[in-house]
Write a structure and sequence with these properties.
alpha/beta; 7-stranded mixed β-sheet; globular; 2 domains; Transcription Regulator spoIIAA; single chain
């Protein structure tokens, strides 16, 4: 870690000055202030969520002096923020640093923030590891809001339902959020309550494979290879105008394996079958080791194999608070029209 962070923080803040003014004007007060992998301090990120300054380190722990230097830099730039530090430099990026009681109490406060006029909740520390809204996905939520008016949306691997809430705010006719974690869905329900939504969102607490197979019409057997499957909610087959697919890098359950590096097609096929003819499938992949061109070829081959023609592919890139000098950001978002 750099012995002096101030020049790096100052340069990053100056590069964002115009962007932050634009974001504030559209009622967005959550964004990345420092993106260390592209701003000469790999492993360090600093995010603002309204009055929360979330400092995270992924390669090595910050010293007390470095933490103080970061807090001191932003205090006059954006007054009134509470700094929370999460050291995630150990295995699986799990938070490993205990906080003093007063700091822990402040970190566990539920706070509200706004993105493109949509309100969400955040906590610096909670039962999981990741923030309740990933800020690099703002570009995806923005694009969804431009896309869904009057349309139906299936939000897969919904986490805290950020995409679903944004879609409802933008006039979607019907929104279904699917996630296996009840705790995440509960946060999503609270996010929906914060907003004056014209529709009621639907929440499905289910493994995504089980949900997709039923919605697509493939069906999900209760007995597979003579083994009883875990309980799952029964869903009627139906297709959606827009399907948003944002899987984790890797996950394994009785219903299937999520592996966005080696087998994205296992996810894309059932998601594609849930997409109406003439509809739109938005696929996300946050694995840095897969290039955009290689992944695009995988998507094209999967569509062709399943008898669907991609008539248009649009790339949605993270916004300027997530700089990528080589033009290959880890998060890749492809909007596919069929």
């Amino acid at each position: 870690m750099s012995s002096t962070l101030h020049p790096l923080l100052a340069a990053a803040f100056e590069r964002r000055r115009e962007l932050l003014a634009e974001l504030e004007a559209e009622q967005t007060n959550a964004y990345r202030l420092f993106h260390g992998s592209a701003e000469n301090c790999p492993g360090l990120t600093v995010d603002r969520y309204n009055d929360l300054l979330l400092i995270q380190s992924f390669h090595q722990a910050l010293s007390a002096a470095e933490r103080q230097e970061i807090s001191d830099f932003y205090a006059p730039q954006i007054p009134g923020m509470t700094a929370v530090y999460n050291d995630r430099s150990e295995n699986n990026s799990r938070i490993c640093n205990p906080l003093p009681p007063d700091e822990l109490a402040a970190a566990q406060i539920q706070r509200e923030f706004s993105e493109i006029g949509v309100r969400y909740l955040v906590q610096g520390r909670h039962g999981g590891q990741d923030p309740w809204l990933f800020l690099d996905m703002r570009a995806g939520r923005r694009r969804i809001m431009q896309e869904v008016a009057g349309k139906t949306l299936l939000n897969l691997f919904a986490y805290t339902c950020g995409v679903g809430v944004a879609a409802a705010k933008a006039g979607a006719a019907h929104v279904v959020n699917v996630d296996f974690a009840e705790s995440s869905i509960n946060v999503g329900k609270e996010n929906a309550r914060l907003n004056d939504l014209p529709i009621r969102l639907r929440y499905v607490h289910s493994d995504a494979f089980a949900a997709m197979r039923q919605l697509s019409g493939i069906g999900q057997p209760k007995l597979v290879r003579r083994k009883h499957m875990p309980d799952f909610p029964k869903l009627e087959a139906r297709t959606f105008d827009v399907v948003f697919l944002d899987p984790p890098r890797y996950a394994k359950s009785a219903f299937g394996v999520v592996d966005i590096v080696n087998d994205y097609a296992a996810l894309m096929k059932p998601a594609l079958l849930c997409t109406a003819e003439g509809g739109t499938l938005i696929c996300c992949n946050n694995a840095a080791q897969i290039s955009r061109d290689v992944w695009a070829d995988q998507l094209q081959r999967c569509a062709t194999k399943n008898g669907r023609t991609i008539r248009d592919m649009e790339w949605i890139s993270p916004e300027a608070d997530f700089p990528s000098p080589d033009g290959q950001p880890p998060l890749k978002i492809a909007l596919l029209r069929f």
